[in-house]
Amino acid sequence: MTRLRDLHHTLKLALPLIIGQLSSMGMNVVDSLIAGRLGAAQLGGVAVGAAVYSFALLLCIGTLGAVTPTVAQLYGARRFGEIAPRVRQAWWIALGLGLVVTAICWSGSLLLQWVGIDAKLYPHARDFLFGVGFGGPALAGFFALRGFCDGMGRTKPGMVAAFSGLLALIPLATALAFGWGPLPTLGTFGLGLATALVLWLQTLGLAIYVARAEYFNRHGTVFAMDRPQAEPIGALLKLGLPMAFAWQMEGGLFIVVALLMGRIGGDWAAAHQIAINVASVAFMIPLGLAQAVTVRVGHARGAEDRAGVRRAAASGLTLAFGTQLVSATVMFVFAAQITRLYAPDAPELIPLVVQLMFLAGIFQMSDGIQVVGAGALRGLKDTTVPMFVTAFAYWGVGFPLAWYLGFGTGLGGPGLWIGFIAGLSVAALLLNWRFVVLSGRWSRTGPALS
Q: I need a surface site. Which of 29, 82, 136, 304 has the fewest CB within 10 A?
């Protein structure tokens, strides 16, 4: 019965997170679907531009991800009065990150020129990045607010904000990309600009809700700019920067492969965008589970509940096994149909996507296990060792193998993707081994709260 209760508790907490993650990823899917109707070059350009944007996105997710376990452990220890002041210090980090995101997007065209992507893709990637760059500050603000809500165990507000943003993006992106009434046709720049505008809308909506909700304000408001304080900002950065680095190690491998696909050719870049979109959508499910595990482990760690820590992680892994099996089956069976949905006028992409989708199905299990293991470690506020683990797994194993198979053996796109499988599998093994060791040596996990 305990196992079933744990599964239910984790799933109840995770469902809003999963829906929120799917909604956020749905924005990328919408951009890709609309880009595919603009043309194959536009789709490939958005794929390459989105890879650069993902670098900035992962920087925000990782660094501001420190808010969730910090709030969760304080909440679990019933130190409620310390939560709002700590979140108010996070605003300084969010402000800096927002400006960094904008700078990365607006200077991304220089990187694309240096990499030497296909000339047909370059202008579309550049335009998309310039448009989406306007949303940098909103992106950082959203993750800070969502981390606060999630750490308090209230995951629905972030879900509603993300899903509302997805609904708003569909008509807005269509209107800006193709033109509507007085609006001119803006192409891929319109797609990026629509994404930026939606980021501002959903962040403002979430902020208004949190400001009005009594539950979030009973111990003090988070909507103030206190003087920056070195200790709390340093503690958040000490926790968040290794998380950001770990996200960059994994996401960076996917980003680099997307850029290398641009060197192989426009069709492979477009096929990669379709396959990685589908794999990324599937990844949102175990990612939501991992975030729920972070909250549950954080609450249990703050309450000094050793058994609760282990049960939270075990329930997340069990659910991840089931969901990833379903995802892999969908990719194996429906690859061709999914390709036609993305690019109905580009049948030449179908055999390429089918190859990549088969490989994506294979790495689903490793992907789900590694992200839940990382989420459990974040709940323990253990982020430094996982940073080195992911660096080794993705860049010591995954990238060399991807490069060798993709270019050294002539396998091309599929060879690059085999590197994904190797990197994710090594990360899954090492991260979960790390959690087993830490949960078995309670006193060596470091201070519970900071």
A: 304
